[in-house]
Each structure stands twice: as C-alpha cells, then as structure tokens.
Specification:
Nitrilase/N-carbamoyl-D-aminoacid amidohydrolase; about 25% strand; hydrolase; nitrile hydratase activity
C-alpha cells in the first residue's frame, strides 16, 4: 500500500489519498484522517488550509474527517515558554501571549466557520483545536455533524509534561460519545489514550469510532492504537501532524529549545504516523511517516459486532461484582455565586 504525499497545494490534489476497500455486503463508512501541519500563529490561514483539506477528503467520498491534535491554534513543539522552576522569562510570557492570540473561543466565529465547512462538504468533522476560555487555554477536540451543526467538545483531561504549563485540565463533563447515523463517535487526545479508566468510560458510552488525535509520532504509538481497537472492539482513527522546522516561525521569533542549532528548515520535527485500525486490530490505512497526506479507509461497521462476539469489555467480559468505575461527569468549577441561586428561587415563586 503506497502512501504518497505531495508538496504543492496549488495544482491538483493537496495530498495523495490512501484507501482500502471493505466487504461491500456490509454497511461501510468512508473515513479520512488528515496528516498535515498547522500554519503556526496564523489561525485564519490554518482555517483556510483545513477547508482545502476537507474539500479534498469530501471529493473522495469521505463521510468522516479527523484532524490532528491542536491543528487550529498549533502544537507548540519544542517550546518551553521560558519556564524553569522558580522563574519565567519575559520572552516566554510574550510567546504565551502570541499563542493565546492564536487560540479560539468555543463558541466563537472560528467554530461557526468549522460548522459551516462540515455542512458545506456534508461530512462529520472531528477537529483538534486550542480553546481559549478567558486567559486559560485547553487542548480540545470539537465535533460537528454533516448538517453543519456543532455537537460538542472534549477537553484533554491530563496534559503531559510541559503541556501542563500552558494548558488547563479538562473534567468529566466533556467526555462525550455522540450517536450519529454513521456510528457512535468519541475522542481522546494523545497520551490520555493511555489512561485505562478514561478509555473504559468511553467504552461504557458505546464508542464505535474512536478518534485519537495525537502529537506522538513514535512507532510505539501504533501499539497503543492497536490495543485500543482490540480492547474496545471499535475502529481507531489516529491523526497526527507532519511538520518540518519551516512550518514554525524562524528563530528568534520561535525556538526549539536545546535543538535549534541542529535543525535545518527541512528538518522533520514531527513524523506523523497517522493510522486507521479495525476492531480486529487490522491496520486499514497507514501508518504514514512520509509527509503530509490524507489517509482513508472504508470502515465495515459489521466488524464491530464480530469483534464484540469475542470480547465485549463492558458487556459479557465485565465483572461488575468485582470491578466497577464511577465517572464524575459534572462540571468542576472553582467558584459559584449565591446571588444566582437566590434569583432562581425568587423567579419560581
């Protein structure tokens, strides 16, 4: 199976599509994972790029399109925002100001545009964004249906390592699984896919198309994706960016800490590895480490039932008398206003 990226966006398709067929006797859904780089610090240009990619995926007949982690707003690979224990630099604070400016409000005009794009091209859209909520940022996934409606969001529960400096923590109120005509769709972001209890919560909600936007391009990531497909009896769609140094602003505006001197403009700083895996653990498309690409497969929905016959993790393979999980799915807020409660009570009298 060839995975052939292209390097131009002006003539012909943006990226070569990769697809594999499924049994025509079973219902199938055509899905695409996008492997492409953000236009860093330029959210309008990134939205334009997203629309071109979405249009091309739709032209191949895709009904579901999944974008990488932090595609809108950018994954700040290599940056430390001037942070050391006990100190922050003036440049690091300015870097965060620019990063904050590139994030989007949810709801907001960028969300409206993404919804319109999903409706225009008649696709279900799963999009990784950096969400701005006041002065705190969240690594978030947004969901849209093919009628152009915003369905909801998932905020990353547990940022990894230095991500915790720049992103807030999600809570149990944003772990949705959406029931749609093409299947039950949910998402977990990057290393939170390695959290067994989070995965179990999604399985309990019946996820069938498990989206895993990520920033992890290591080969070992593939083992996690295969395991989740087998464990959950679900399709796993993992989308990652393929980035070179030149996809980020040049130094000194943007620097890759400790490695900048070793990098050339064409140096690969994230190698992709986007992949689509069936509930039986079969790799349907990918992983691609060659460049920007659209990676497509036909998902045989009957494969979910066949896989669950062997192993249903929250069904016949569960042992609730021995093991159980409680998910606190109410919003966790740091404040409440008693006057709001008093007004609500007064209006009911």
């Amino acid at each position: 199976m060839a995975l052939a990226p292209t390097s131009t966006i002006d003539d012909g398709p943006l990226f070569a599509e990769v697809e594999m067929g499924a049994d025509a006797s079973s219902p199938t859904i055509r899905a695409t994972v996008v492997q492409a780089a953000t236009v860093f610090y330029d959210t309008p240009a990134t939205l334009d790029k997203a629309e071109r990619l979405l249009a091309e995926a739709a032209s191949y007949g895709s009904q579901l399109v999944v974008f990488p982690e932090a595609f809108i707003g950018g994954y700040p690979r290599g940056s430390n925002f001037g942070v050391t224990i006990g100190n922050r630099t003036a440049k690091g604070k300015e870097d965060f100001r620019k990063y904050h400016a590139a994030a989007i409000d949810v709801p907001g005009p960028e969300v409206d545009r993404l919804a319109a794009m999903a409706g225009k091209y008649k696709v279900y859209l799963v999009m990784g964004v950096i969400e701005r909520d006041g002065y705190t940022l969240y690594c978030t996934v947004l969901f849209f249906d093919s009628q152009g409606r915003y369905l909801g969001k998932h905020r990353k529960l547990m940022p990894t390592a230095l991500e915790r400096i720049i992103w807030g923590f999600g809570d149990g109120s944003t772990i949705p699984v959406f029931e749609t005509p093409i299947g039950k769709i949910g998402a977990a972001i990057c290393w939170e896919n390695r959290m067994p209890l989070l995965r179990t919560a999604m399985y309990a909600k019946g996820v069938e198309i498990y989206c895993a936007p990520t920033a992890d391009s290591r080969e070992v990531w593939q083992a996690s994706m295969t395991h989740i497909a087998l464990e959950g009896g679900c399709f796993v769609l993992s989308a990652n960016q393929f980035c070179r140094r030149k996809d980020y602003p040049p130094p000194p505006e943007y620097s890759f800490a400790a490695t900048e001197e070793e990098l050339m403009p064409d140096s690969i700083v994230c190698a992709g590895g986007s992949v689509i895996i069936s509930p039986s653990g079969t790799v349907l498309a990918g992983p691609n480490y060659e460049g920007e690409a659209l990676i497509t497969a036909d998902l045989d929905i009957g494969e979910i039932v066949r896989a669950k016959f062997d192993f249903d993790v929250v069904g016949h393979y569960a042992r609730p008398e021995v093991l159980s999980l409680v998910v606190k799915d109410n919003p966790m807020t740091p404040f409440s206003f008693t006057s709001a409660s008093v007004k609500a009570e007064s209006s009911q009298k």
